[in-house]
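STRUCTURE:
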């Protein structure tokens, strides 16, 4: 038996939030519930602090931080309408979220 602990790789998530002013925030995390709670309590990203209430529009899992960061960057380059379309695609792929 090996003395090394098995490391379980947790997925990274790209998520889209609609802010109270209608803008869309995109971020990444390994723990979506914790991160959303941080945003709601005003301890999340500076951008979302004064833009509540927040609504989760979409969520997508990635195997590692690097791929999640690349996806986040690509989404941030989209127009607001295209971000909303992306969010709908994310949620229809995972309707239980």
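SEQUENCE:
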């Amino acid at each position: 038996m090996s003395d090394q602990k098995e490391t379980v790789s947790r997925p990274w998530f790209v998520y889209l939030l609609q802010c109270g002013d209608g803008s869309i925030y995109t971020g990444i995390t390994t723990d979506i519930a914790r991160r959303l709670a941080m945003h709601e309590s005003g301890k999340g990203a500076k951008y979302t602090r004064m833009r509540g209430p927040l609504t989760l529009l979409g969520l997508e899992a990635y195997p590692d931080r690097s791929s999640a960061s690349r996806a986040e960057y690509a989404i941030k380059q989209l127009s607001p309408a295209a971000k909303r379309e992306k969010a709908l695609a994310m949620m229809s792929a995972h309707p239980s979220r």
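REMARK: The mean pLDDT is 88.
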